Here is the input.
Amino acid sequence: QSVLTQPPSASGTPGQRVSISCSGSISNIGSNAVSWYQQLPGTAPKLLIYANDQRPSGVPDRFSGSKSGTSASLAISGLQSEDEADYYCAAWDDSLNAYVFGTGTKVTVL
Amino acid sequence: QVQLVQSGAEVKNPGASVKVSCKASGYTFTRYDVNWVRQATGQGLEWMGWMNPNSGNFGYAQKFQGRVTLTRDTSTNTAYMDLSSLRSEDTAVYYCTRVATGNIHYSYMDVWGKGTTVTVSS
Here is the structure.
């Protein structure tokens, strides 16, 4: 089962800001960098944020990441219809000696 | 361009094995680790293990130890995931990914294959 906890869903109207939390522990988020992945319906996941708050080239600056202690957050500002997708956080876990993913959050644009 | 091309869908009987391939192109295959991740229908992402294509070293999630084998062929820039003793719960899409850094504490997956659907059914 997933070690990192995310809310199952989040929603907003176009233009709004949506935030997704990712809660872990000292052995994962507390000790290692967090990455975020976006999965559009029927497609493979895509890297959205790495090293807690870094965006790969090509990712709009509407997406931002942050980390504090054993939790991380992904924010989407200026929500757009194409942002409707599943979002996953992830990090290495030193205790499990494994890469762990969050439970996933489905973002709906109303 | 950098890409990972995976083999096609498989249908297997319970108890059988499956071998999924992942061919890398557009970068130096031996410079980046490969992770394998799977996703059952309607479920979240699950990490299975990693492999270093240069050394052949690997690590598996505890859940899959004894059933999964990660290998590579550096002459064809291809990584392989072999899963044995298949059961219905192994029905999922299997992804290979490129791991972007050599430091495990900062690692992330920057390139993903399109996925291979494995169906286990009698």
